[in-house]
Amino acid sequence: MKPFEKCPVCSGELETRRVEKLLRGGGNTVSMKVIAEVCLYCGERLYAEDVVKSFETIRSKLKKQDFSHLKTLGQSFTVEKDWPNEAIQPTT
Ligand SMILES: [Zn+2]
Fold first, then answer.
1. Ion ligand 1 — residues with CB under 5 Å?
2. Which of 23, 49, 53, 77 has CA atoms 20 to 30 A from the CA of 1?
């Protein structure tokens, strides 16, 4: 089951954890909890191959505005262009 034994970045120990993952596409965002191998040393997250394929599927669905198998969870916002602090900019 484990696709990785050690962290490929730093050779650190990996631990199976449920992490929050955000995917963006077409101005939309999907958040989900995903099982990942997380490096205890550098924090690198490793996902199984079929999970990475699902991420690609979700990203392409978002770009096509195809929301089947996705459910609405609140609303996403960005700031307007005229936000008073210039260091803060809208994402799109
Ligand atoms: Zn690492």
1. 7, 9-10, 12, 39, 41-42, 44
2. 23
